[in-house]
Amino acid sequence: MKVVILAGGFGTRISEESHLKPKPMIEIGGKPIMWHIMKEYSYYGFNEFIICAGYKQEVIKEWFSDYFLHNSDITFDFTSGKNDMIVHNQHCESWKVSVVDTGLNTMTGGRIKRIQPYVNNETFMMTYGDGVSDVDIDKLLEFHRKKGKIATITSVMFEQTKGYLDLSDEDDVRAFREKSRSDGARINGGYMVLEPAIFEYIDGDSTVFEKEPLETLAAQGELCAYRHDGYWQFMDTKREMEKLESLLASNKAPWKKWED
Question: 105-135: b or e for each residue (b if 16 or more CB lie within 10 Å)?
Protein backbone atom coordinates (compact mmCIF):
# COMPACT_ATOMS: atom_id res chain seq x y z
CA MET A 1 0.00 0.00 0.00
CA LYS A 2 1.31 3.43 -0.95
CA VAL A 3 1.82 6.29 1.51
CA VAL A 4 1.16 9.84 0.31
CA ILE A 5 2.90 12.66 2.17
CA LEU A 6 1.89 16.30 1.78
CA ALA A 7 5.11 18.29 1.55
CA GLY A 8 4.38 21.28 -0.67
CA GLY A 9 3.44 24.11 1.69
CA PHE A 10 5.44 27.25 2.42
CA GLY A 11 5.85 26.70 6.18
CA THR A 12 5.62 30.42 6.89
CA ARG A 13 5.21 30.01 10.66
CA ILE A 14 8.68 28.46 10.91
CA SER A 15 10.27 30.83 8.42
CA GLU A 16 13.59 30.81 10.30
CA GLU A 17 14.16 27.42 8.66
CA SER A 18 11.67 27.20 5.79
CA HIS A 19 13.12 30.11 3.81
CA LEU A 20 15.86 27.65 2.84
CA LYS A 21 13.88 24.42 2.43
CA PRO A 22 10.34 22.98 2.61
CA LYS A 23 9.15 22.46 6.18
CA PRO A 24 9.13 18.63 5.85
CA MET A 25 12.86 18.84 5.06
CA ILE A 26 13.71 20.70 8.27
CA GLU A 27 15.96 18.40 10.24
CA ILE A 28 15.49 16.98 13.71
CA GLY A 29 18.21 14.65 14.93
CA GLY A 30 20.14 15.22 11.71
CA LYS A 31 17.38 13.93 9.41
CA PRO A 32 14.36 15.70 7.85
CA ILE A 33 11.16 15.31 9.83
CA MET A 34 9.68 13.70 6.71
CA TRP A 35 12.34 10.98 6.95
CA HIS A 36 11.14 10.26 10.50
CA ILE A 37 7.56 9.96 9.24
CA MET A 38 8.67 7.59 6.49
CA LYS A 39 10.58 5.50 9.04
CA GLU A 40 7.36 5.23 11.07
CA TYR A 41 5.50 3.74 8.11
CA SER A 42 8.47 1.60 7.10
CA TYR A 43 8.51 0.08 10.60
CA TYR A 44 5.09 -1.37 9.77
CA GLY A 45 6.21 -2.60 6.35
CA PHE A 46 4.98 0.25 4.15
CA ASN A 47 7.87 1.27 1.92
CA GLU A 48 6.37 2.95 -1.14
CA PHE A 49 5.96 6.70 -0.84
CA ILE A 50 4.48 9.45 -2.99
CA ILE A 51 5.59 12.90 -1.92
CA CYS A 52 3.39 15.83 -2.92
CA ALA A 53 6.03 18.50 -3.40
CA GLY A 54 5.65 22.18 -4.27
CA TYR A 55 7.62 24.92 -2.55
CA LYS A 56 11.34 24.32 -3.12
CA GLN A 57 10.55 20.86 -4.49
CA GLU A 58 14.06 20.64 -5.91
CA VAL A 59 15.44 20.38 -2.35
CA ILE A 60 13.43 17.19 -1.77
CA LYS A 61 14.49 15.67 -5.10
CA GLU A 62 18.16 16.49 -4.55
CA TRP A 63 18.09 15.07 -1.01
CA PHE A 64 16.76 11.72 -2.20
CA SER A 65 19.09 11.77 -5.20
CA ASP A 66 22.06 11.95 -2.83
CA TYR A 67 20.63 9.64 -0.16
CA PHE A 68 22.16 6.42 -1.52
CA LEU A 69 25.55 8.08 -1.94
CA HIS A 70 25.54 9.55 1.55
CA ASN A 71 24.57 6.24 3.16
CA SER A 72 27.04 3.97 1.40
CA ASP A 73 30.71 2.99 1.73
CA ILE A 74 32.18 3.79 -1.66
CA THR A 75 35.52 3.67 -3.43
CA PHE A 76 36.08 6.31 -6.12
CA ASP A 77 38.69 4.96 -8.54
CA PHE A 78 40.26 7.45 -10.97
CA THR A 79 43.38 5.39 -11.78
CA SER A 80 42.17 4.36 -15.24
CA GLY A 81 41.28 7.89 -16.18
CA LYS A 82 37.63 7.22 -15.46
CA ASN A 83 35.37 7.92 -12.55
CA ASP A 84 34.69 4.35 -11.44
CA MET A 85 32.55 4.03 -8.33
CA ILE A 86 32.54 0.82 -6.31
CA VAL A 87 29.80 0.42 -3.68
CA HIS A 88 30.95 -1.79 -0.80
CA ASN A 89 28.13 -1.44 1.71
CA GLN A 90 24.97 0.60 1.63
CA HIS A 91 22.69 1.38 4.55
CA CYS A 92 19.55 2.64 2.84
CA GLU A 93 16.00 1.60 3.54
CA SER A 94 14.16 -0.49 0.96
CA TRP A 95 12.09 2.46 -0.16
CA LYS A 96 10.51 3.44 -3.45
CA VAL A 97 9.98 7.20 -3.45
CA SER A 98 8.11 9.22 -6.07
CA VAL A 99 8.56 12.98 -5.65
CA VAL A 100 5.81 14.76 -7.60
CA ASP A 101 5.78 18.51 -8.23
CA THR A 102 2.14 19.28 -7.38
CA GLY A 103 2.46 23.02 -7.93
CA LEU A 104 3.61 26.02 -5.94
CA ASN A 105 0.25 27.42 -4.81
CA THR A 106 -1.88 24.27 -4.98
CA MET A 107 -4.09 23.60 -1.97
CA THR A 108 -3.97 20.32 -0.02
CA GLY A 109 -6.87 18.74 -1.90
CA GLY A 110 -5.42 19.76 -5.23
CA ARG A 111 -2.10 18.15 -4.34
CA ILE A 112 -3.84 14.87 -3.54
CA LYS A 113 -5.80 15.08 -6.79
CA ARG A 114 -2.60 15.54 -8.79
CA ILE A 115 -1.07 12.29 -7.56
CA GLN A 116 -4.07 10.20 -8.58
CA PRO A 117 -2.17 8.59 -11.51
CA TYR A 118 0.46 7.34 -9.05
CA VAL A 119 -2.12 5.77 -6.71
CA ASN A 120 -4.29 4.20 -9.43
CA ASN A 121 -7.42 2.44 -8.15
CA GLU A 122 -5.96 1.44 -4.80
CA THR A 123 -6.55 2.19 -1.15
CA PHE A 124 -3.74 4.44 0.10
CA MET A 125 -2.54 6.17 3.23
CA MET A 126 -1.90 9.88 3.54
CA THR A 127 -0.43 12.18 6.16
CA TYR A 128 1.12 15.60 6.58
CA GLY A 129 4.88 16.02 6.28
CA ASP A 130 5.32 17.98 9.48
CA GLY A 131 3.98 15.77 12.27
CA VAL A 132 5.19 12.62 14.05
CA SER A 133 3.25 10.13 16.14
CA ASP A 134 3.45 6.71 17.72
CA VAL A 135 0.13 5.67 16.16
CA ASP A 136 -0.10 1.94 15.43
CA ILE A 137 -0.42 1.88 11.63
CA ASP A 138 -1.54 -1.76 11.59
CA LYS A 139 -4.41 -1.05 13.98
CA LEU A 140 -5.32 2.09 12.03
CA LEU A 141 -5.57 0.08 8.81
CA GLU A 142 -7.56 -2.66 10.55
CA PHE A 143 -9.99 -0.05 11.87
CA HIS A 144 -10.41 1.47 8.39
CA ARG A 145 -11.23 -1.89 6.83
CA LYS A 146 -13.67 -2.74 9.59
CA LYS A 147 -15.53 0.56 9.23
CA GLY A 148 -15.74 0.33 5.44
CA LYS A 149 -15.84 4.10 4.87
CA ILE A 150 -14.23 6.12 2.08
CA ALA A 151 -11.93 7.91 4.53
CA THR A 152 -10.45 7.37 7.96
CA ILE A 153 -8.56 10.08 9.80
CA THR A 154 -6.63 9.75 13.03
CA SER A 155 -8.10 11.85 15.83
CA VAL A 156 -5.90 13.17 18.62
CA MET A 157 -6.28 15.50 21.59
CA PHE A 158 -4.30 18.67 21.09
CA GLU A 159 -4.83 22.39 21.72
CA GLN A 160 -4.22 23.84 18.30
CA THR A 161 -6.01 25.07 15.19
CA LYS A 162 -6.58 21.81 13.38
CA GLY A 163 -9.75 20.14 12.10
CA TYR A 164 -12.57 19.80 14.66
CA LEU A 165 -14.28 16.40 14.74
CA ASP A 166 -17.81 15.75 16.00
CA LEU A 167 -17.79 12.00 16.65
CA SER A 168 -20.60 9.57 17.27
CA ASP A 169 -20.33 6.72 19.77
CA GLU A 170 -19.52 4.46 16.80
CA ASP A 171 -16.57 6.67 15.80
CA ASP A 172 -18.34 8.00 12.71
CA VAL A 173 -17.61 11.65 11.94
CA ARG A 174 -20.90 13.58 12.02
CA ALA A 175 -19.36 16.96 11.22
CA PHE A 176 -15.99 18.37 10.26
CA ARG A 177 -14.83 21.97 10.57
CA GLU A 178 -11.66 23.86 11.34
CA LYS A 179 -11.07 24.05 15.09
CA SER A 180 -10.81 27.20 17.18
CA ARG A 181 -8.64 27.41 20.29
CA SER A 182 -11.71 27.48 22.51
CA ASP A 183 -12.85 24.03 21.37
CA GLY A 184 -12.20 21.18 23.76
CA ALA A 185 -12.47 18.33 21.29
CA ARG A 186 -10.41 15.86 19.33
CA ILE A 187 -8.67 17.16 16.24
CA ASN A 188 -7.50 15.88 12.88
CA GLY A 189 -4.00 14.48 13.34
CA GLY A 190 -3.47 13.25 9.78
CA TYR A 191 -2.42 9.59 9.42
CA MET A 192 -5.35 8.89 7.10
CA VAL A 193 -6.45 5.87 5.10
CA LEU A 194 -8.30 6.76 1.89
CA GLU A 195 -10.19 4.81 -0.73
CA PRO A 196 -9.71 5.84 -4.39
CA ALA A 197 -13.28 7.22 -4.38
CA ILE A 198 -11.80 10.17 -2.47
CA PHE A 199 -10.68 11.73 -5.75
CA GLU A 200 -14.32 12.24 -6.75
CA TYR A 201 -14.66 14.71 -3.85
CA ILE A 202 -11.79 16.93 -5.01
CA ASP A 203 -12.49 19.49 -7.74
CA GLY A 204 -8.99 20.77 -8.49
CA ASP A 205 -5.99 22.79 -7.36
CA SER A 206 -8.04 25.28 -5.32
CA THR A 207 -9.69 22.59 -3.17
CA VAL A 208 -8.67 22.56 0.49
CA PHE A 209 -8.89 18.91 1.51
CA GLU A 210 -9.83 19.76 5.09
CA LYS A 211 -12.80 21.84 3.90
CA GLU A 212 -15.27 20.66 1.25
CA PRO A 213 -14.05 17.06 0.77
CA LEU A 214 -13.97 16.08 4.46
CA GLU A 215 -17.05 18.13 5.32
CA THR A 216 -19.00 16.41 2.52
CA LEU A 217 -17.77 12.96 3.53
CA ALA A 218 -18.80 13.62 7.12
CA ALA A 219 -22.27 14.74 6.01
CA GLN A 220 -22.62 11.57 3.93
CA GLY A 221 -21.47 9.27 6.73
CA GLU A 222 -18.35 8.27 4.80
CA LEU A 223 -15.76 9.63 7.23
CA CYS A 224 -14.64 7.91 10.42
CA ALA A 225 -11.97 8.62 13.01
CA TYR A 226 -9.43 6.31 14.57
CA ARG A 227 -8.91 7.47 18.15
CA HIS A 228 -5.26 7.80 19.07
CA ASP A 229 -4.49 8.69 22.67
CA GLY A 230 -0.73 8.25 22.44
CA TYR A 231 1.95 10.66 21.28
CA TRP A 232 1.34 13.13 18.46
CA GLN A 233 3.20 16.33 17.70
CA PHE A 234 3.32 18.54 14.64
CA MET A 235 6.13 21.00 13.95
CA ASP A 236 4.73 24.42 13.17
CA THR A 237 7.18 26.66 15.03
CA LYS A 238 10.85 26.81 15.99
CA ARG A 239 9.86 26.00 19.57
CA GLU A 240 8.15 22.78 18.48
CA MET A 241 11.16 21.86 16.37
CA GLU A 242 13.42 22.29 19.41
CA LYS A 243 11.01 20.17 21.48
CA LEU A 244 11.28 17.30 19.01
CA GLU A 245 15.04 17.74 18.82
CA SER A 246 15.29 17.53 22.61
CA LEU A 247 13.32 14.27 22.72
CA LEU A 248 15.62 12.71 20.15
CA ALA A 249 18.76 13.93 21.91
CA SER A 250 17.59 12.40 25.21
CA ASN A 251 16.59 9.14 23.49
CA LYS A 252 12.97 9.67 24.54
CA ALA A 253 11.31 10.17 21.16
CA PRO A 254 8.00 8.21 21.36
CA TRP A 255 7.66 7.93 17.58
CA LYS A 256 11.08 6.30 17.12
CA LYS A 257 10.33 2.57 17.14
CA TRP A 258 13.07 1.50 14.76
CA GLU A 259 16.62 0.50 15.68
CA ASP A 260 19.54 2.68 14.60
Answer: ebbbbbbbbbbeeebeeebbbbbbbbbbbeb
